[in-house]
Amino acid sequence: MEPRFDMSANALGAKISKRLYNVSLAIEQSPLPKATQNLVMLRASQINGCGFCVDFHTKEATAAGESAVRQNLVAAWRETTVFTDAERAALALTEEGTRLADTHQGVSDETWAQVRKHYDDDQIAALVSLVAVINAANRMNVIVRNRGGSYKPGMFNSMSS
């Protein structure tokens, strides 16, 4: 299966992709812990079936020092002992915020209360934005059929500015 469209080869597509990347840089530089950011991006990408993003975020998390055990268990995080309560709150928000159509309530009050318990306002702003941005990136990559496997850590660092 070949990609359908190369966003970076199209002037408008490249402009939009660069803007999304710059939003992700603002989130990356936020006080939300980097490990939590990586787990959130990996989990949303798994749910959305985005091979490109699973590849990207797994390799970036590994480069940042995240363990293989935690990365391998993120898909079954509820049934593990390797995540903190704060990370569990972020993963619950990620799942509920990614699967909006699966429930009439979107993000539950229980999940929101756990997020409020573990994160301050700046971290929450970053977390909510991260869930939205990774879902947008997943959808773009799935729609144009960008496949996983060839990502090299840091390969998009030149996109900023």
UniProtKB/TrEMBL annotation:
Domain Carboxymuconolactone decarboxylase-like: residue ranges: 26-96
Classify the source by domain of life: Bacteria
| Keyword tags | Oxidoreductase, Peroxidase
Q: Which GO MF terms are attached to this record?
A: peroxiredoxin activity
KW Oxidoreductase (keyword) present: yes
Fetch the PANTHER family from UniProt: 4-CARBOXYMUCONOLACTONE DECARBOXYLASE FAMILY PROTEIN (AFU_ORTHOLOGUE AFUA_6G11590) (PTHR34846), BLL7811 PROTEIN (PTHR34846:SF7)
Protein's name in the database: Alkylhydroperoxidase
